[in-house]
Amino acid sequence: MEETLTSVGIDLGTSTTKWILSKLTLTRTSGGFALPRYEITKRAIDYESPIYSTPLLGDDEIDVPAVVRLLGEEYARAGLLPEMVQTGAIILTGETASKSNAEGLAHALALHAGQFVVATAGADLESLLAGKGSGAERRSLETEGLIANVDIGGGTANTAYFRRGRLVATATFHIGGRLVRVDEEGRVQYISPAIRKWAGGTGKKLPGLGDSVRFEELDDLCRTLATTLLLSVCGTSDALVRAEPLIVGASVQNLPQPDEIWISGGVGRLMEAPPPESVQATAKYGDIGPLLAAVLARIGKEWPVPVRVAEQSVRATVIGAGTQTTEVSGATMYYSPGLLPLRNIPVVICELPPEAEVGADDVRTLKEALGGTVAQGVSIYAEAGSDPPFALCLRSSGACSYRRLQRIAEGLAEAYALPMLRDRAMLLICESDMAKALGHLLLIKLKEPQRHRLICLDQLVPQEGDYLDVGEPIKEDVIPVVIKSLLFQE
Q1: What φ, ψ does residue 254 adopt, rounded to 5°?
Q2: pLDDT, greater one: 479 or 160
Q3: Do 16 and 51 touch, CB atoms closer than 8 A?
Q4: Which residues, 6 or more positions from 106, have their beta carbon under 8 angstroms from its beta carbon?
Q5: Are 139 and 185 in contact (CB under 8 A)?
Q6: Residue 42 and residue 68 in contact, taking contact as beta carbons nearer than 8 Å
Q7: Backbone phi and psi for residue 454, each to the nearest 5 degrees, phi listed first
């Protein structure tokens, strides 16, 4: 049995806006007497929009009517009506997500689309999405090394580190093509506050607005920015200290040393273009993007870590999204009344360590794994405002004794004691049949109001970056769950 879904992906970035229409074929792979299971057997991109400049009204506001009008025109070209869209994603990225009317834009676009996975993407989530879309995540499954994907657009450089298909770290820097703007005469039109603050700390003198700048000065600025970025991505401690004004969000103390660096985004695409040799050629798009890309390509050839353009560069962040695979949770579940249904809850995977022989050691390693994963989930997803902010999937390679289940419950209660989680629901996904027992143990260990805002489901195998819709119970022991996997071009 097959079913075709229409999927739309919309990416509104600092510099560019693009969208993609895909048709996804879902095929039932389970037998007639088994629980329904579907897999994607075919994906076809029906339409790719041109890459447009993101319509803006000044530096702080998106031109919402222009974006909606552009999308309407593109729908018409593709022969698509909004009611035909079944799934997809709106991604507001880079500085666009921080514009004063970004939320209004997301709501306006929702009127033109179907069931979208996510309305905005914070810096960490944008890094994850770009790393998936660029092919870096898949590359990490093919090698023993650590792969860092740096998605450089107009306003930010979003970095995600992958090891064996898992996200292990993220970092975002205020480095992008649109943060320094010049006209073809070499007059400076804009320099971002973050760039000015960073330059002041390094003693680098920058021109004022309207001042003329020589090509050699722009090349030197791009070289310093590119070097700072690559050193920081490689986890060089003194470089991270110097890059502090460029870091988005909390300070980054430590970053891992990658074995390969991939560059995606608009700047990644320009790395393969002929390098500009004058101010006029640099200012082709009114900014330093082409020169920053050329300098990265030049430096990357001699960098001690291999630097390469990503397999998918300009459309890495989102290239179609949202395939739906319906699952049914197992019979050993627990849920508090009144919490269901839930929609669009992102998944965070926690790999539980093997059980240690000494009980105290097992408690310690479990708390470290659970606490670290929950903290990472908060960093990536808490700002989105959903309740719960994420679903925590507990993944274990072996059987789980009742003694160890008690330790897991203790570790979860401690990890979820973070202030920003105390009033949020807790959604736990167990791959084995232990959800009901875990739920009852957590009733004892959790404090109010969390003990009455708890859902534990099992026999589900979502992946990192998936989104869940959890329906109302069909009957006492059956809950339908829709797993939405972000789809990226291969």
Answers
A1: -140, 135
A2: 160
A3: yes
A4: 90, 92, 119, 120
A5: no
A6: no
A7: -130, 135
Token representation of residue 185:
């005469």
pLDDT in tens, 281-292: 999 989 999 999
Supply φ then ψ for residue 406, to 5 degrees: -60, -40
Confidence band of 321 (pLDDT split at 50, 70, 90):
very low
> Which of 428, 432, 431 minimizes the C-alpha distance to 440?
428
* Cis-peptide into 306, omega within 30 deg: no
Q: How far are the Cα atoms of 203, 222, 291 from residue 216, in angstroms, in the given order?
A: 18, 10, 11
pLDDT of residue 274: 94
Q: Quote the tokens at residue 396.
A: 């274990």
440 φ/ψ angles, rounded to the nearest 5 degrees: -70, -35
The residue whose two tokens read 């810096």 is: 123
Tracing tokens 């393969």 back to the chain, one arrives at 272
Residue 108, number of CB atoms within 10 A of its CB: 16
Question: In terms of DSSP H, where are the helices of 416-466?
Answer: 435-445
What is the C-alpha separation between 223 and 393, in angstroms, rounded? 43
| Residues 6+ positions from 407 with CB-CB distance below 8 Å | 359, 362, 363, 366
The answer to whether 464 and 429 are in contact (CB under 8 A) is no
Dist. CA 272–CA 307, nearest whole Å: 13
Name the one residue in this structure whose structure tokens are 């994607």.
40
Q: What is the pLDDT of residues 412-466, one digit of tens each?
A: 999 998 888 888 889 999 877 788 888 899 988 888 877 789 989 887 888 877 8
User: How many Å apart are CA 224 and CA 197, to the nearest integer?
Assistant: 14
Place of tokens 């999405």: 129
Which is it for the CA torsion 139, 141, 142, 147, positive or negative?
positive
Is 60 exceeded by the pLDDT of residue 33? no
327: CB partners within 8 A, 6+ apart:
35, 37, 459, 460, 480, 481, 482, 483
Q: Give the E-state strand segments of 29-145 in sequence order.
A: 38-48, 52-53, 87-92
Inter-residue contact 322 to 252 (CB < 8 Å): no
Is 175 in a helix, a strand, or coil?
coil
